[in-house]
Design brief:
Bound molecules: manganese (II) ion
Number of domains: 1
Order of helices and strands: EHHEHEHEHEHEHHEHEH
Mean pLDDT: 95
Oligomer: single chain
Distance between the termini: 19 Å
CATH class: Alpha Beta
Shape: globular
CATH superfamily: Ureohydrolase domain
Structural class: alpha/beta
Largest sheet: 8 strands, parallel
Number of helices: 10
CATH topology: Arginase, Chain A
């Protein structure tokens, strides 16, 4: 057996069920040399503009991920056999300092990319994606982006602050971490401040797939639009509010009329065609969840699909 391989996962019905949860019952390991993929908790919600609570996301998603089994029949892959993957623990965030939190996130992702480990981030609010993109772009150059969200997150500021969970992708494009011409935002909907909210898209080439297009043209048409991102590194950021609050109520800024849980799974599986170099699932705010913690359960399954997509490219 490969000595650098993390210990196998615990059996589904092992006594570990009664112990503190890890993502997908994986071993807790902080050795990048032993890993292909690191699932990294980022328990920070200081960038939130409305309902807080996403700092509790990683803890609850760990718990709801305990039922994830080994094989993905939809993609015909066993991600835990193909990949060396572990729960890398949580970033040491500073709840009262976004600046120090961003530094800590960037440092962690730097350490992972230096060892060629793919980061799979678990937020946290959407502000945490910016330092991840910065670190990845330093290694890979300006990134392509598939961004699932109800909101474009390209606003310039909020109450005088340039950094919050709604400015992440404007900053990322401005800084050159993301190539605006290689951005696809899927699931966008809901009231905005005005038509000017999409001026930045026109200026920098960001492409929006509004929810109306997903629902009216169907999943196949949307999946086909991912094709143009082939050929260069792509990051996937999945804001859980892309999904309808009926399926994912636990989020900070819910918008009605979104993706179903099933549509979300199918769209994430379509990323198999792209060279994915990292991904995150963010904005799960467990205090707002419904019975059965359905939002954290969905987030856990989206992470499993992302892991499966990564496994197919190994
Ligand atoms: Mn967002």
């Amino acid at each position: 057996m490969d000595e650098t391989r993390p210990a196998p996962r615990d059996a589904l019905h092992s006594p570990r069920f009664a112990q503190p949860a890890t993502f997908m019952r994986l071993p807790h390991l902080r050795d990048p040399a032993a890993l292909d993929v690191a699932i990294l908790g980022i328990p920070y919600d200081g960038g939130t503009s409305y309902r807080p609570g996403a700092r509790h996301g990683p803890r609850h998603i760990r718990e709801q991920s305990s039922l994830i089994r080994n094989y993905n029949p939809a993609l015909a892959v066993s991600p835990f056999e193909r990949l060396r993957v572990a729960d890398y623990g949580d970033v040491d965030v500073a709840p009262l300092s976004m600046e120090r939190t961003f530094e800590a996130i960037e440092r962690e992702v730097d350490g992972l990319t230096a060892a060629r480990v793919v980061p799979l981030g678990v937020g946290g609010d959407h502000s945490v994606t910016l330092p991840i993109l910065r670190a990845l772009a330093r290694r890979h150059g300006p990134l392509g982006l598939v961004h699932f969200d109800a909101h474009p997150d390209t606003w310039d500021e909020y109450g005088g602050s340039r950094h919050f969970h709604g400015s992440t992708f404007r900053r990322a494009v401005e800084e050159g971490a993301v190539d605006g011409r290689r951005v696809l935002q899927i699931g966008i909907r809901g009231p905005v401040r005005g038509p000017g909210d999409f001026d930045f898209h026109a200026e920098r080439g960001l492409e929006v797939v509004r929810i109306e297009e997903v629902k009216e043209r169907g999943l196949g048409a949307v999946c086909a639009r991912l094709d143009r991102l082939r050929g260069a590194p792509v990051y996937c950021s999945f804001d859980i509010d892309a999904v309808d609050p009926a399926y994912a109520p636990a989020t900070g800024t819910p918008e009605v009329g979104g993706l179903s849980a099933y549509e979300a799974l199918v769209l994430v599986r379509a990323l198999r065609a792209l060279p994915l170099i990292g991904a995150d699932v963010v904005e799960v705010s467990p205090p707002y969840d419904g019975p059965g913690q359905v939002t954290s359960l969905l987030a856990a399954n989206l992470l499993f699909e992302l892991l499966s997509v990564l496994a197919l490219r190994r």
